[in-house]
Amino acid sequence: MDKTVSSADDAVADIADGATLMAGGFGLCGIPENLIAALHRRATRNLWIISNNCGIDGKGLGLLLQNGQVKRITASYVGENKTFERLYLDGKLDVELCPQGTLAERIRAGGAGIPAFFTPAGYGTMVAEGKESRVFGGKNYILETALHADFAFVKAWKGDRFGNLVYRKTTRNFNPMMAAAARITIAEVEQMVEPGQLDPDLVHTPGIYVQRIIKGAHYEKPIEQRTTRKKMGGA
Question: What CA–CA distance (Å, rounded) separates 159 from 82?
């Protein structure tokens, strides 16, 4: 089945106000730039964003924050995003922070059909408030629930028209598990190839998890924290 869509704008055209959206990426690495920009243009409001973080000011998911499109965020950290911080402190943004590993497992569980699981992360902290706790093997655990979404935006290096995806190195991050945990997964890829051109053993996300796919363009690939060092041996 050919799942290609002509543009990012067409791919996000049915995302309505109040939708829950998972967005892949770690900081600004491996983010679906074209799909985020299209949703920014669409100006969909009251979104619940589930992502490792929410970009930075004016970049990535930070675009949606600055445009007042986000009502709630589930993430593992605030990062460099001053808009995120200000909106939360002003009481204009609902925020659920959870340990990064817990966030990843909650998303994975959602895709695997596991409603909840016990983890030691967060026990004895504010993260555990109001949650069931149990002891296994003499160690304390808290109950965490799975996460699902109406839509997932994922970014891949290569993909075919059937939706099979290959990610490149660390850009894989949260993308494969989010693709499995959403009702509708929309993928953007840097390279679109024909079915059969991807080695089946190298496919990270099978096309069964992807409903729409677009060929991305004009990638900025911004760097959140640029770190350099002097060349060895002098100037």
Answer: 34
